[in-house]
Amino acid sequence: MASIAFVLAAALQAPAPANSPQWIWGSEAREAGHAVVLRGEVDVRERVSRARLIATAEYCHAAVHVNGTEVARREPYGDLVDLDVVEQLRTGENEIRVACQSVEGPAAIMLRLELHYADGTRASFVSDEHWQAAIRDAGADDWNTVATFGAVAERAWGDVGDSIAIQPADNYEQWKQALDAPAGADPQTLQSPPGFQVRLIRSAAEDEDSWVSLACDPQGRWVIGKEKQGLLRLTLPGADGGEVRVETINDSLAECRGLLFAYDSLYAMANNDHALYRLRDTNRDDRFDDVTKLATFEGGVGHGRNQITLGPDGMIYCIFGDAVEEPEFTRPLVPGLSNPTRRERAKSGFVARTDRDGRRWEVVVRGLRNPFGIDFNTRGDMFTYDADAEYDMGASWYRPTRIDQLMPGGDFGWRNVTKD
Q: Helix or strand or coil: residue 177?
């Protein structure tokens, strides 16, 4: 966060219960890198028993201050601020500030403060045209009227659900929580069905990189794909005890996001190698001495070549993000799902299936964005987990992160990003 934060300070006026907050910013021009200050005052007439502060910041870093005390900080695309600030309020005039710095996109914030007075009455204060703003990095320290961009949808505050709130599955910044973690996820933070227990067995060592894929071999050992390069094999202790053993079994394949044991082989989708490989132990020495490239997939690596699984039809199913160019050697599963041309600008993720030798390829599904996993239930239905672009959060066409049942021959509608 920049040393000069963009401070959003809510100039909240007379109580107006049930009114909707406005999306506001310091000016109509919303360029990246601006440090903007928005400020205002809240008049608290007497002691309050609860003061619920709800706020969100779009396309900006933000720090929320109440009477000079920072109470919350959020990154772009982070979750909703929802907390009680009764300890920071005092009778009379109060100042709310939110310090922000914009990133690329239509920066704006919204805020609502719900006061619960001791006598049972309530008042609510919201972000609106009465707020004041100063753009610090432009040398403008004078306070001016904010720019408003419409009311936050009323349904966000109704019983049908909070459409502004970002659930854990929607939080695009949650990966940052692991950057400074000393070990793997704390088992206490994971949810499990009744009767199950979660135990941390082993965390990645410093020289083992991040782990991005996992598959169990016929001997019950776990093969792990390292994010940068190579494969590990983890052997769990036996019933009589012992230690977890980890060994390197490949040091060449780059970012194997997909691993599958099938047909006496290990199939590996190496994202940064842009290819699907088959690994075999031809001399039975418990080492993969034969590594064969089965197919190449051009394109980017961000929303790239992801997980693979064995379908109920015996075919190998591979799922790709929208950065991957659908290869010309594939053919559609059903008539009407024609192959894209080189001139088609609107790319989308897709599912393709192949035989054990990687010779015949068929497109099964199109219109995905960034699906990583793929699997089948016991009835043979295919599923993945996908998300729309974080740039579109709040737009009418945005679909929250979700589990999709992938119908063969289906097109799920994703085409590039709207900001382009």
A: helix
DSSP notation for 368-413: ESS---EEE-TT--EEEEE---GGGTTSTT---SEEEE--TT-B--
Separation between Cα atoms, residue 114 and residue 84, nearest integer Å? 9
pTM: 0.70
Confidence (pLDDT) at 316: 98
Contact 290, 282 (CB under 8 A): yes
pLDDT of residue 139: 54
**3-state class of 132 per DSSP?**
strand
Greatest CA separation found in the chain?
A: 83
Taking Cα atoms as reference points, which of 128, 106, 125, 103 lies closest to residue 114?
Answer: 125
Judge residue 291's burial from the number of C-beta atoms within 10 Å of its C-beta, 0-12 exposed, 13-18 middle, 19 or more buried: middle
Strand pairing partners for 385?
403
Residue carrying the six token digits 């069905």: 193
Residues ≥6 apart with Cβ < 8 Å to 172: 77, 78, 390
Strands 22-25 and 361-368: unpaired
Give residue-wise pLDDT tens across range 140-154: 568 899 999 988 875
User: If we measure between CA atoms, which residue out of 300, 313, 306 comes closest to residue 386?
Assistant: 306
State the CB neighbour count (10 A cutoff) for residue 31.
10
Q: Are 318 and 365 in contact (CB under 8 A)?
A: no
Indicate if the alpha-carbon torsion angle 197, 201, 203, 209 is positive or negative. negative
Q: How much is the pLDDT for 247?
A: 95
Please list the ranges in the chain whose pLDDT falls under 70.
1-18, 137-141, 154-170, 332-346, 394, 416-420
The structure tokens 């720019």 sit at: 147
